[in-house]
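To the wet lab folks,

You asked to see what we're planning to order before we commit. Fair enough. Below is the target structure as tokens, and below that is the sequence we designed to fit it. If anything looks off to you, flag it before the synthesis order goes out.
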């Protein structure tokens, strides 16, 4: 049953994503020709896309606290490519992602046209370029979401935050919001640490197949109720790390009962 569910859902996700994207780029053409800003259109489509994927995956999103309103700069822990779904459902935003995503077939091109900001973490010089893009991208129609861990994990703990991409909020004296994300699967599924969190050597296609086979995914996203401000990016990173760590709920690494499907 799990394999059939995965195949059906992957087909549904592919059709839904391509259809929504094609409608978006068609509407975007008219928006560009009219001289209007594209962020409001993109926000509506990304929220609809995220809601559609959550429905297909039977993903229940619980939001604790109040999501910030644009413009904002927010940091969060990072567990999976799936993180963008609850975040897009909760806020009007765009993301800073590692440059590897840009090279993914089809997905990379779509992400780029959706306003995702890519960074090459292997090149220190690229940090300055990205910080400049971040400063220009903050506006009344969108906030910026950053995953300062720099990688994903099984979700047992929050990894230390890298300070390099916090240069802009530190230098600009910006208030920084924070959130934490965690997942849990049903007792008939593989543990979320394996089938939702993406880490280790497993390839993206193989992991998506595992993800789609889950009967149900529960996501809890918790928004901090205060903001953090500091002129030193390393101090800012340390404070934010501690606050996210304090409210983070570890991802279960074992199912509650033996698998039935």
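Sequence we intend to order:
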């Amino acid at each position: 049953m799990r394999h059939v569910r995965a195949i059906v859902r992957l087909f549904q996700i592919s059709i839904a994503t391509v259809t929504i994207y094609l409608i978006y780029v068609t509407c975007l053409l008219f928006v560009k020709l009219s001289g209007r800003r594209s962020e409001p259109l993109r926000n509506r489509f990304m929220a609809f896309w995220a809601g559609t994927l959550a429905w297909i995956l039977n993903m229940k999103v619980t939001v604790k606290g109040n999501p910030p309103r644009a413009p904002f700069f927010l940091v969060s822990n990072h567990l999976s490519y799936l993180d963008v779904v609850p975040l897009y459902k909760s806020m009007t935003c765009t993301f800073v992602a590692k440059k590897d995503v840009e090279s993914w077939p089809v997905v990379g091109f779509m992400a780029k046209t959706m306003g995702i900001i890519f960074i090459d973490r292997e090149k220190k010089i690229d940090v300055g370029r990205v910080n400049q893009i971040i400063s220009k991208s903050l506006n009344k129609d969108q906030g910026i979401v950053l995953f300062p861990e720099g990688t994903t994990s099984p979700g047992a703990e929050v990894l230390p935050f890298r300070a390099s991409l916090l240069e802009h909020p530190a230098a600009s004296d910006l208030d920084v919001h924070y959130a934490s994300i965690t997942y849990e699967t049903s007792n008939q599924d593989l543990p979320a640490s394996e089938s939702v969190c993406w880490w280790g050597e497993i390839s993206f296609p193989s992991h998506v197949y595992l993800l789609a086979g889950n009967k149900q995914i529960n996501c809890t996203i918790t928004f901090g109720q205060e903001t953090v401000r500091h002129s030193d990016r390393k101090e800012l990173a340390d404070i934010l790390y501690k606050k996210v760590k304090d409210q983070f709920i570890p991802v279960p690494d074992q199912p509650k009962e033996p698998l039935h499907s």
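Structural context that might help your review: Strands lie at 59-64, 73-76, 93-98, 117-119, 143-146, 176-185, 217-223. Confidence is low (pLDDT under 50) at residues 257-261.

Thanks,
Computational group
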